[in-house]
Amino acid sequence: MHIVIYGLGGVGGYFGGKLAKAGNNVTFIARGAHLKAVQEYGLQVKSIDGDFTIQPTLATDTISDVPKADLVILSVKSWQIPEIAEQLKPILHSDSAVLPLQNGADNVEKLVEVLPEHQVLGGFCKIYSKKETDGVIDHFGVSPAEVVLGELNNKKTERVAAIARLFNEAGCLGTVAEDIQKRIWSKFIFITTVSAIGGLTRVSIGAMRDVPYLYDVLKNTALEIKAIANAKGINLTDDDMGALFNFIDKQPYEATASTQRDIMAGHPSELENFNGYIVKEGKRLGIPTPVNEFIYYCLVPQEKIARTS
């Protein structure tokens, strides 16, 4: 199986590195100094599960150099998906599978607007990781890291079982979801909630938990997102919300979300795809989202600066 990792940040670098270390044929599509470092020195992964370095089969910024792919793992930002989906067309064959692992609730929707639906899987991951420096990935939380995936119709096909086995054999967890859209939205609520308040307060999840007022804001943010999900036919329940906050309560005190780190660093972030998406869907569906609106519009000015600087 030829696996293509599009995007060499914390997610793509870690999971792609683990797949390559396990002996799979892995191509990385990346750019800039990060790509050059990988080409020259290999991809270095610092991990709580043990450090390693791999030499990818191919690392390039030119998609025309890439052979046909059996599996493409997308670890770019959500807003980049439409453009990248177009770029993927020449390297896909009729049985290729495209697996998006980035955060967001509408990644599948964006992909199927460009690619045939049968080529698209639903997916997300559970990991704390980041690009430390050019050529180096730091995996600093969640062990073992997990990839959750599924067919869009939730059928338990051999291809999703085979992809899950790839991750398991590489030392990660590969899980086929019973209801992939519900699982995606469960992750989306978590990451959107902690990223938003984290972006405003600029403190860790633990520090937010310590302030009862902020903890209530976290809950109200999540409840608005649940209302949008339910209106879209996603079966999130009160029990799911309880599980969500049990999960938040168990996160490492110093943990921060990747979108929060982007906001704090003045980089373009997933704000539009997170709280912005909820605000937009709330207006479309006639559902009030005042907490998400406040967070979104407080952060919009900085996001505009980040995207024009």
UniProtKB/TrEMBL annotation:
Annotated pathway: Cofactor biosynthesis; (R)-pantothenate biosynthesis; (R)-pantoate from 3-methyl-2-oxobutanoate: step 2/2
Full protein name: 2-dehydropantoate 2-reductase
GO cellular component terms listed in the entry, alphabetical order: cytoplasm
GO molecular function (one): 2-dehydropantoate 2-reductase activity
Keywords: NADP, Oxidoreductase, Pantothenate biosynthesis
InterPro entries: 6-PGluconate_DH-like_C_sf (IPR008927), 6PGD_dom2 (IPR013328), ApbA (IPR003710), KPA_reductase (IPR013752), KPR-Related (IPR051402), KPR_N (IPR013332), NAD(P)-bd_dom_sf (IPR036291)
Family: Belongs to the ketopantoate reductase family.
Function according to Swiss-Prot or TrEMBL: Catalyzes the NADPH-dependent reduction of ketopantoate into pantoic acid.
Catalytic activity as recorded in UniProt: (R)-pantoate + NADP(+) = 2-dehydropantoate + NADPH + H(+)
Class of the enzyme per the UniProt entry, highest EC level: oxidoreductase
EC number: 1.1.1.169
Annotated Ketopantoate reductase N-terminal domain residues: 3-153
GO terms of biological process kind: pantothenate biosynthetic process
Domain Ketopantoate reductase C-terminal: 179-299
Residues forming coiled coils: none
